[in-house]
Specification:
This protein is of the alpha+beta class. The strands form five sheets. It has a seven-stranded mixed β-sheet with strand order 1-20-19-18-17-21-16. It has a five-stranded antiparallel β-sheet with strand order 7-6-5-2-8. This is Hydrolase. Belongs to the peptidase C40 family. One of its GO terms (molecular function) is cysteine-type peptidase activity.
Length: 439
Protein backbone atom coordinates (compact mmCIF):
# COMPACT_ATOMS: atom_id res chain seq x y z
CA UNK A 1 0.00 0.00 0.00
CA UNK A 2 2.81 2.39 0.92
CA UNK A 3 4.57 1.57 -2.34
CA UNK A 4 1.39 2.27 -4.32
CA UNK A 5 0.89 5.65 -2.63
CA UNK A 6 4.54 6.54 -3.21
CA UNK A 7 4.20 5.59 -6.87
CA UNK A 8 1.13 7.84 -7.24
CA UNK A 9 3.03 10.71 -5.65
CA UNK A 10 5.89 10.18 -8.09
CA UNK A 11 3.50 10.30 -11.01
CA UNK A 12 1.87 13.46 -9.64
CA UNK A 13 5.10 15.33 -9.17
CA UNK A 14 6.42 14.11 -12.52
CA UNK A 15 3.94 16.48 -14.16
CA UNK A 16 5.73 19.37 -12.49
CA UNK A 17 9.18 18.15 -13.47
CA UNK A 18 11.66 20.39 -15.18
CA UNK A 19 12.03 20.53 -18.94
CA UNK A 20 15.54 19.73 -20.13
CA UNK A 21 16.82 21.11 -23.41
CA UNK A 22 19.18 19.25 -25.68
CA UNK A 23 20.09 19.08 -29.35
CA UNK A 24 18.63 16.02 -31.06
CA UNK A 25 21.08 13.51 -32.48
CA UNK A 26 20.31 13.25 -36.21
CA UNK A 27 21.57 9.81 -37.16
CA UNK A 28 20.20 9.68 -40.69
CA UNK A 29 22.08 11.12 -43.70
CA UNK A 30 20.98 14.74 -44.13
CA UNK A 31 21.03 14.61 -47.92
CA UNK A 32 17.80 14.14 -49.89
CA UNK A 33 19.70 12.64 -52.82
CA UNK A 34 20.77 9.77 -50.56
CA UNK A 35 17.15 8.53 -50.53
CA UNK A 36 16.78 8.37 -54.29
CA UNK A 37 16.54 4.80 -55.48
CA UNK A 38 16.82 3.29 -58.94
CA UNK A 39 13.33 1.80 -58.75
CA UNK A 40 11.82 5.08 -57.56
CA UNK A 41 9.08 6.49 -59.77
CA UNK A 42 10.58 9.36 -61.74
CA UNK A 43 7.46 11.56 -61.47
CA UNK A 44 8.03 13.22 -64.83
CA UNK A 45 5.06 15.15 -66.20
CA UNK A 46 4.17 16.32 -69.69
CA UNK A 47 4.84 19.82 -70.99
CA UNK A 48 1.08 20.26 -71.24
CA UNK A 49 0.61 19.62 -67.52
CA UNK A 50 3.55 21.86 -66.70
CA UNK A 51 1.96 24.68 -68.74
CA UNK A 52 -1.33 24.18 -66.87
CA UNK A 53 0.48 24.44 -63.54
CA UNK A 54 2.21 27.64 -64.62
CA UNK A 55 -1.05 29.24 -65.76
CA UNK A 56 -2.87 28.22 -62.59
CA UNK A 57 -0.04 29.44 -60.35
CA UNK A 58 0.16 32.88 -61.96
CA UNK A 59 -3.61 33.30 -61.89
CA UNK A 60 -3.60 32.73 -58.13
CA UNK A 61 -0.48 34.86 -57.64
CA UNK A 62 -2.05 37.83 -59.46
CA UNK A 63 -5.49 37.38 -57.87
CA UNK A 64 -5.18 40.44 -55.57
CA UNK A 65 -4.93 42.60 -58.72
CA UNK A 66 -7.40 40.71 -60.87
CA UNK A 67 -10.03 40.57 -58.14
CA UNK A 68 -9.30 43.63 -55.95
CA UNK A 69 -12.08 43.18 -53.41
CA UNK A 70 -11.21 43.55 -49.70
CA UNK A 71 -12.32 40.60 -47.61
CA UNK A 72 -15.58 41.72 -45.95
CA UNK A 73 -15.14 39.26 -43.07
CA UNK A 74 -13.61 41.51 -40.41
CA UNK A 75 -13.24 38.68 -37.88
CA UNK A 76 -11.19 36.71 -40.43
CA UNK A 77 -9.03 39.67 -41.44
CA UNK A 78 -8.31 40.70 -37.84
CA UNK A 79 -8.32 37.19 -36.37
CA UNK A 80 -5.76 38.18 -33.76
CA UNK A 81 -7.86 40.98 -32.24
CA UNK A 82 -9.88 39.01 -29.63
CA UNK A 83 -6.72 37.64 -27.99
CA UNK A 84 -5.01 41.01 -27.57
CA UNK A 85 -7.06 42.17 -24.60
CA UNK A 86 -7.80 38.72 -23.15
CA UNK A 87 -4.29 37.27 -23.11
CA UNK A 88 -1.53 39.87 -23.59
CA UNK A 89 1.37 37.41 -23.41
CA UNK A 90 5.04 38.18 -22.90
CA UNK A 91 7.22 40.91 -24.43
CA UNK A 92 10.93 40.70 -25.49
CA UNK A 93 11.96 41.62 -21.92
CA UNK A 94 10.08 38.49 -20.71
CA UNK A 95 7.59 40.61 -18.80
CA UNK A 96 3.87 40.51 -19.50
CA UNK A 97 2.46 43.17 -21.77
CA UNK A 98 0.23 45.53 -19.81
CA UNK A 99 -3.46 46.02 -20.54
CA UNK A 100 -2.65 49.62 -21.46
CA UNK A 101 -0.09 48.50 -24.05
CA UNK A 102 -2.55 46.03 -25.54
CA UNK A 103 -5.35 48.59 -25.66
CA UNK A 104 -3.08 51.05 -27.46
CA UNK A 105 -2.07 48.37 -29.99
CA UNK A 106 -5.68 47.28 -30.43
CA UNK A 107 -6.88 50.85 -31.03
CA UNK A 108 -4.00 51.57 -33.43
CA UNK A 109 -5.47 49.11 -35.94
CA UNK A 110 -8.51 51.39 -36.41
CA UNK A 111 -10.59 48.33 -37.24
CA UNK A 112 -13.92 50.15 -37.21
CA UNK A 113 -12.90 51.93 -40.43
CA UNK A 114 -11.77 48.79 -42.29
CA UNK A 115 -11.55 48.67 -45.29
CA UNK A 116 -10.35 52.25 -45.57
CA UNK A 117 -8.56 51.94 -48.96
CA UNK A 118 -8.39 49.70 -52.01
CA UNK A 119 -4.96 50.08 -53.58
CA UNK A 120 -3.09 47.65 -55.81
CA UNK A 121 0.55 47.38 -54.78
CA UNK A 122 3.64 45.20 -54.94
CA UNK A 123 6.13 44.06 -52.30
CA UNK A 124 9.52 45.69 -52.90
CA UNK A 125 11.57 43.81 -50.30
CA UNK A 126 11.35 40.38 -48.65
CA UNK A 127 9.53 41.25 -45.46
CA UNK A 128 7.42 39.97 -42.58
CA UNK A 129 3.66 39.93 -42.61
CA UNK A 130 2.55 40.65 -39.05
CA UNK A 131 -0.69 39.91 -37.23
CA UNK A 132 -0.48 43.34 -35.61
CA UNK A 133 1.21 46.59 -36.73
CA UNK A 134 4.41 46.22 -34.72
CA UNK A 135 7.74 44.42 -34.99
CA UNK A 136 7.60 43.53 -31.28
CA UNK A 137 7.13 39.81 -30.57
CA UNK A 138 4.53 38.20 -28.34
CA UNK A 139 5.26 34.88 -26.63
CA UNK A 140 2.76 32.72 -24.74
CA UNK A 141 5.26 32.12 -21.96
CA UNK A 142 8.76 33.19 -20.98
CA UNK A 143 10.26 30.03 -22.48
CA UNK A 144 8.16 29.99 -25.67
CA UNK A 145 10.91 31.12 -28.08
CA UNK A 146 10.87 31.06 -31.12
CA UNK A 147 7.07 31.13 -31.35
CA UNK A 148 6.28 34.82 -31.80
CA UNK A 149 2.49 34.63 -32.12
CA UNK A 150 2.34 37.98 -33.92
CA UNK A 151 4.57 36.73 -36.75
CA UNK A 152 2.29 35.62 -39.56
CA UNK A 153 4.41 34.94 -42.63
CA UNK A 154 7.30 36.00 -44.84
CA UNK A 155 6.33 37.54 -48.17
CA UNK A 156 8.76 37.77 -51.06
CA UNK A 157 9.73 40.82 -53.06
CA UNK A 158 7.70 41.09 -56.26
CA UNK A 159 4.50 39.63 -54.78
CA UNK A 160 1.26 41.34 -55.95
CA UNK A 161 -0.91 42.54 -53.04
CA UNK A 162 -3.95 44.66 -52.30
CA UNK A 163 -3.68 47.37 -49.63
CA UNK A 164 -7.00 47.45 -47.81
CA UNK A 165 -6.28 49.47 -44.68
CA UNK A 166 -3.77 51.55 -42.70
CA UNK A 167 -3.10 51.84 -38.99
CA UNK A 168 -3.62 55.22 -37.33
CA UNK A 169 -0.01 56.32 -37.83
CA UNK A 170 -0.06 55.05 -41.43
CA UNK A 171 3.36 53.46 -41.09
CA UNK A 172 1.80 49.99 -41.50
CA UNK A 173 -0.55 48.81 -44.23
CA UNK A 174 -2.89 45.86 -44.00
CA UNK A 175 -2.58 43.77 -47.15
CA UNK A 176 -4.19 40.74 -48.68
CA UNK A 177 -2.14 38.57 -50.96
CA UNK A 178 -2.85 35.30 -52.70
CA UNK A 179 -1.91 33.36 -49.55
CA UNK A 180 -1.90 35.59 -46.46
CA UNK A 181 -3.51 38.59 -44.74
CA UNK A 182 -1.61 40.88 -42.41
CA UNK A 183 0.32 44.03 -41.66
CA UNK A 184 3.36 45.08 -43.69
CA UNK A 185 5.59 48.11 -43.19
CA UNK A 186 4.62 50.81 -45.68
CA UNK A 187 8.27 51.29 -46.64
CA UNK A 188 8.22 47.80 -48.21
CA UNK A 189 5.24 48.48 -50.49
CA UNK A 190 4.93 50.34 -53.78
CA UNK A 191 1.64 51.32 -55.40
CA UNK A 192 1.06 50.39 -59.04
CA UNK A 193 -0.63 52.18 -61.90
CA UNK A 194 -2.85 50.49 -64.54
CA UNK A 195 0.15 50.73 -66.88
CA UNK A 196 2.34 48.89 -64.35
CA UNK A 197 -0.32 46.24 -64.00
CA UNK A 198 -0.55 45.69 -67.76
CA UNK A 199 3.24 45.60 -67.95
CA UNK A 200 3.33 42.75 -65.44
CA UNK A 201 0.47 40.85 -67.04
CA UNK A 202 2.35 40.86 -70.35
CA UNK A 203 5.46 39.23 -68.87
CA UNK A 204 5.56 35.65 -70.11
CA UNK A 205 8.63 34.10 -68.47
CA UNK A 206 9.86 33.88 -64.88
CA UNK A 207 13.03 32.56 -63.28
CA UNK A 208 13.69 30.69 -60.02
CA UNK A 209 16.99 30.26 -58.21
CA UNK A 210 18.46 26.76 -57.98
CA UNK A 211 19.84 27.43 -54.50
CA UNK A 212 18.61 29.40 -51.54
CA UNK A 213 20.04 32.82 -50.70
CA UNK A 214 21.87 33.70 -53.90
CA UNK A 215 22.82 37.41 -53.78
CA UNK A 216 21.88 39.51 -56.80
CA UNK A 217 24.04 42.50 -57.75
CA UNK A 218 23.94 45.33 -60.25
CA UNK A 219 26.63 46.00 -62.86
CA UNK A 220 28.70 47.81 -60.22
CA UNK A 221 28.53 44.84 -57.83
CA UNK A 222 26.15 46.70 -55.52
CA UNK A 223 23.74 44.39 -53.71
CA UNK A 224 20.16 44.53 -55.02
CA UNK A 225 18.27 41.50 -53.80
CA UNK A 226 18.44 37.95 -52.48
CA UNK A 227 17.17 35.01 -54.53
CA UNK A 228 15.26 32.49 -52.43
CA UNK A 229 13.86 29.05 -53.14
CA UNK A 230 10.30 29.52 -54.40
CA UNK A 231 10.73 33.22 -55.23
CA UNK A 232 9.78 34.34 -58.76
CA UNK A 233 11.73 36.85 -60.85
CA UNK A 234 10.18 38.39 -63.97
CA UNK A 235 12.41 37.94 -67.03
CA UNK A 236 13.18 40.78 -69.42
CA UNK A 237 15.59 38.98 -71.74
CA UNK A 238 17.34 35.63 -72.10
CA UNK A 239 20.93 35.71 -73.31
CA UNK A 240 23.58 33.06 -73.93
CA UNK A 241 24.87 32.76 -70.36
CA UNK A 242 22.76 35.31 -68.50
CA UNK A 243 19.14 36.09 -67.74
CA UNK A 244 18.10 39.72 -67.46
CA UNK A 245 15.46 40.16 -64.76
CA UNK A 246 13.24 42.92 -63.41
CA UNK A 247 13.44 43.98 -59.76
CA UNK A 248 10.73 46.28 -58.33
CA UNK A 249 11.60 49.24 -56.12
CA UNK A 250 9.69 52.07 -54.49
CA UNK A 251 10.09 55.50 -56.10
CA UNK A 252 9.94 58.75 -54.15
CA UNK A 253 6.29 59.24 -55.13
CA UNK A 254 5.32 55.88 -53.58
CA UNK A 255 4.78 54.09 -56.89
CA UNK A 256 6.75 51.20 -58.31
CA UNK A 257 9.78 51.43 -60.54
CA UNK A 258 11.77 48.61 -62.12
CA UNK A 259 15.50 48.01 -62.13
CA UNK A 260 17.06 45.44 -64.40
CA UNK A 261 20.10 43.29 -63.77
CA UNK A 262 21.65 40.08 -65.02
CA UNK A 263 21.95 36.73 -63.25
CA UNK A 264 23.79 33.62 -64.37
CA UNK A 265 21.72 30.99 -66.17
CA UNK A 266 23.59 28.26 -64.31
CA UNK A 267 22.18 29.58 -61.00
CA UNK A 268 18.57 29.83 -62.17
CA UNK A 269 15.86 27.75 -63.85
CA UNK A 270 12.82 28.76 -65.86
CA UNK A 271 9.50 28.59 -64.02
CA UNK A 272 8.13 26.04 -63.48
CA UNK A 273 10.79 23.42 -63.06
CA UNK A 274 10.01 19.94 -64.34
CA UNK A 275 8.46 17.95 -61.52
CA UNK A 276 10.71 14.95 -60.87
CA UNK A 277 12.50 13.41 -57.90
CA UNK A 278 15.92 14.77 -58.87
CA UNK A 279 14.67 18.34 -58.99
CA UNK A 280 12.73 17.97 -55.73
CA UNK A 281 15.76 16.45 -54.00
CA UNK A 282 17.85 19.40 -55.19
CA UNK A 283 15.27 21.86 -53.85
CA UNK A 284 15.22 20.13 -50.46
CA UNK A 285 19.00 19.98 -50.21
CA UNK A 286 19.26 23.69 -50.97
CA UNK A 287 17.42 24.34 -47.68
CA UNK A 288 18.79 21.46 -45.63
CA UNK A 289 20.11 22.49 -42.23
CA UNK A 290 18.65 25.99 -42.32
CA UNK A 291 17.36 27.12 -38.95
CA UNK A 292 13.69 27.05 -38.05
CA UNK A 293 11.70 30.28 -38.47
CA UNK A 294 8.17 30.37 -37.07
CA UNK A 295 6.01 32.24 -39.58
CA UNK A 296 9.11 33.21 -41.56
CA UNK A 297 10.74 34.84 -38.52
CA UNK A 298 14.22 36.17 -39.37
CA UNK A 299 13.47 35.31 -43.02
CA UNK A 300 13.69 31.59 -42.37
CA UNK A 301 11.04 28.87 -42.76
CA UNK A 302 8.66 26.93 -40.57
CA UNK A 303 7.14 23.58 -41.60
CA UNK A 304 4.44 24.94 -43.93
CA UNK A 305 6.74 27.52 -45.55
CA UNK A 306 9.29 24.77 -46.29
CA UNK A 307 6.58 22.71 -48.02
CA UNK A 308 5.06 25.72 -49.76
CA UNK A 309 8.37 27.03 -51.14
CA UNK A 310 9.44 23.55 -52.23
CA UNK A 311 6.36 22.91 -54.37
CA UNK A 312 6.24 26.48 -55.71
CA UNK A 313 9.22 25.60 -57.89
CA UNK A 314 6.98 23.25 -59.86
CA UNK A 315 3.98 25.54 -60.20
CA UNK A 316 1.96 24.19 -57.27
CA UNK A 317 0.57 27.13 -55.31
CA UNK A 318 -0.10 25.82 -51.81
CA UNK A 319 -1.93 27.72 -49.04
CA UNK A 320 -0.14 29.18 -46.03
CA UNK A 321 -0.99 26.73 -43.22
CA UNK A 322 -0.49 22.98 -42.90
CA UNK A 323 -4.15 21.98 -42.50
CA UNK A 324 -5.09 23.82 -45.71
CA UNK A 325 -2.07 22.37 -47.54
CA UNK A 326 -3.03 18.74 -46.91
CA UNK A 327 -6.60 19.42 -48.13
CA UNK A 328 -5.54 21.40 -51.20
CA UNK A 329 -5.32 18.49 -53.65
CA UNK A 330 -8.67 17.01 -52.56
CA UNK A 331 -7.14 13.55 -52.27
CA UNK A 332 -6.26 13.37 -48.57
CA UNK A 333 -6.26 9.90 -47.04
CA UNK A 334 -7.54 10.01 -43.46
CA UNK A 335 -5.13 8.15 -41.17
CA UNK A 336 -6.56 9.27 -37.83
CA UNK A 337 -8.21 5.93 -36.97
CA UNK A 338 -5.12 3.77 -37.54
CA UNK A 339 -2.50 2.66 -35.02
CA UNK A 340 1.04 3.97 -35.43
CA UNK A 341 2.17 0.68 -36.98
CA UNK A 342 -0.74 0.69 -39.41
CA UNK A 343 -0.11 4.33 -40.33
CA UNK A 344 3.50 3.72 -41.28
CA UNK A 345 2.53 0.65 -43.30
CA UNK A 346 -0.14 2.65 -45.14
CA UNK A 347 2.28 5.51 -45.84
CA UNK A 348 4.94 3.17 -47.25
CA UNK A 349 2.38 1.39 -49.43
CA UNK A 350 0.44 4.36 -50.77
CA UNK A 351 2.55 7.53 -50.52
CA UNK A 352 4.58 8.80 -53.48
CA UNK A 353 8.20 9.56 -52.47
CA UNK A 354 9.15 13.24 -52.85
CA UNK A 355 5.52 14.15 -53.63
CA UNK A 356 3.28 13.14 -50.69
CA UNK A 357 2.81 15.43 -47.70
CA UNK A 358 2.05 14.02 -44.23
CA UNK A 359 0.01 16.12 -41.81
CA UNK A 360 -0.52 16.23 -38.09
CA UNK A 361 -2.13 19.07 -36.17
CA UNK A 362 0.18 22.07 -36.49
CA UNK A 363 2.87 20.33 -38.56
CA UNK A 364 3.49 19.03 -42.08
CA UNK A 365 6.25 16.92 -43.64
CA UNK A 366 7.38 15.67 -47.06
CA UNK A 367 7.67 11.90 -47.48
CA UNK A 368 10.98 10.84 -49.08
CA UNK A 369 10.58 7.06 -49.16
CA UNK A 370 11.83 4.09 -47.15
CA UNK A 371 15.20 3.56 -45.50
CA UNK A 372 16.00 0.47 -43.41
CA UNK A 373 12.30 -0.37 -43.33
CA UNK A 374 11.22 3.01 -41.96
CA UNK A 375 9.34 5.89 -43.58
CA UNK A 376 11.63 8.90 -44.00
CA UNK A 377 10.55 12.57 -44.10
CA UNK A 378 12.03 16.01 -44.69
CA UNK A 379 10.56 18.85 -42.63
CA UNK A 380 11.35 22.10 -40.88
CA UNK A 381 10.80 21.48 -37.18
CA UNK A 382 11.75 23.20 -33.94
CA UNK A 383 11.75 20.26 -31.52
CA UNK A 384 10.20 16.99 -30.40
CA UNK A 385 9.38 16.18 -26.78
CA UNK A 386 10.24 13.07 -24.76
CA UNK A 387 9.16 12.23 -21.23
CA UNK A 388 10.77 10.25 -18.46
CA UNK A 389 9.60 9.63 -14.94
CA UNK A 390 10.65 12.91 -13.40
CA UNK A 391 11.22 15.24 -16.32
CA UNK A 392 10.54 16.23 -19.89
CA UNK A 393 13.20 16.73 -22.53
CA UNK A 394 12.84 19.05 -25.49
CA UNK A 395 14.99 17.60 -28.25
CA UNK A 396 15.92 20.43 -30.60
CA UNK A 397 15.79 19.74 -34.32
CA UNK A 398 16.03 23.45 -34.99
CA UNK A 399 15.38 23.63 -38.73
CA UNK A 400 15.17 21.67 -41.97
CA UNK A 401 16.05 18.06 -41.22
CA UNK A 402 15.55 14.50 -42.45
CA UNK A 403 14.21 12.08 -39.84
CA UNK A 404 12.10 9.00 -39.32
CA UNK A 405 8.55 9.52 -38.04
CA UNK A 406 9.72 8.64 -34.52
CA UNK A 407 12.86 10.75 -34.00
CA UNK A 408 12.17 11.00 -30.26
CA UNK A 409 10.93 7.50 -29.38
CA UNK A 410 14.26 6.02 -28.29
CA UNK A 411 14.51 8.59 -25.48
CA UNK A 412 11.15 7.98 -23.83
CA UNK A 413 11.10 6.65 -20.27
CA UNK A 414 9.98 3.15 -19.28
CA UNK A 415 6.76 4.23 -17.58
CA UNK A 416 5.85 7.26 -19.67
CA UNK A 417 5.65 7.39 -23.45
CA UNK A 418 5.32 10.64 -25.41
CA UNK A 419 3.29 10.49 -28.58
CA UNK A 420 5.58 10.48 -31.59
CA UNK A 421 5.10 12.29 -34.88
CA UNK A 422 3.87 8.99 -36.29
CA UNK A 423 1.28 8.62 -33.51
CA UNK A 424 -0.03 12.10 -34.27
CA UNK A 425 -0.29 11.87 -38.09
CA UNK A 426 -3.86 12.53 -39.23
CA UNK A 427 -3.65 12.43 -43.02
CA UNK A 428 -1.59 12.41 -46.19
CA UNK A 429 -2.02 13.95 -49.63
CA UNK A 430 -0.33 13.07 -52.93
CA UNK A 431 0.57 16.18 -54.93
CA UNK A 432 1.91 14.16 -57.86
CA UNK A 433 -1.51 12.59 -58.28
CA UNK A 434 -2.99 16.09 -58.03
CA UNK A 435 -0.92 17.12 -61.07
CA UNK A 436 -1.96 14.06 -63.06
CA UNK A 437 -5.62 14.77 -62.30
CA UNK A 438 -5.54 18.37 -63.55
CA UNK A 439 -8.44 18.99 -65.97
Amino acid sequence: MHFFLSFLCILFFWGCGATNLQVANLKLPQDANFYLQENLQNLEISQELSAKLKKQYLEIWFSPWKNPIPNPNVSEVFWIAPSLLKNPGFAPNLKRYSQEEMRELYDSMDMEHYPSVNIKAIITRDTSVRAVPTILPRFKSRDNYPFDRWQNSLIFEGTPVLITHYNLKKDWAHIQSSFVYGWVKVENLAKITPEDENFYFNIREYALSNKDKIPIYDENEEFLSMARIGKLFAIKDIQKKDIEIYLPYKKANGFVGFKTTKVKQEDFSFFPKNFDVLNMASVIDSMMGQFYGWGGELQSRDCSAFIRDSFANFGIFLPRNSAAQVKYANNMIDLSAYSAKEKEKMIIQKATPFATILWLKGHIMLYLGVYEGRAIVAHSAWSVMTRKMFSKTENLLGGVVITTLTPESDKNGIFVKSKTLLDKILGMSDLYQYILDLP
